[in-house]
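Thread: Newbie trying to understand structure tokens

Hi all, I'm a second-year student working on a class project, and my supervisor (Dr. K.) asked me to get a predicted structure for one chain before our next meeting. I've only ever worked with sequences, so writing a 3D structure as a token string is new to me. If someone could post the tokens and maybe explain what I'm looking at, I'd be very grateful. Here's the chain:
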Amino acid sequence: SKNPIYQKWIDTYGGEEYERGVRAVISILDNENVSEKEFNELKKHFRTASVYEYMFWDSAYRLEKFPFNVEKNKGV
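---
Reply by user tm_fold:
Sure, no problem. This is what the structure looks like when written as tokens:
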């Protein structure tokens, strides 16, 4: 990115340190013994979180505004 602020963000998530952290968490989760029911619950929660993540970035891309004044809710 030509913008240093964005480049710093890109470097964080595209760097080797972040990848090592992700691989470590994946390894921990892969070594857990969970039932099929628990695994299906985890998949459901992961999908829900992914949908919210998509919605967050989509709303930013569309420059959407909150339907309420965010400033009034500081510290809440």
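A couple of things are worth pointing out once you decode it. The chain is about 70% helix and 0% strand. Residues 38 and 44 are 10 Å apart (CA to CA). Feel free to ask follow-ups in this thread.
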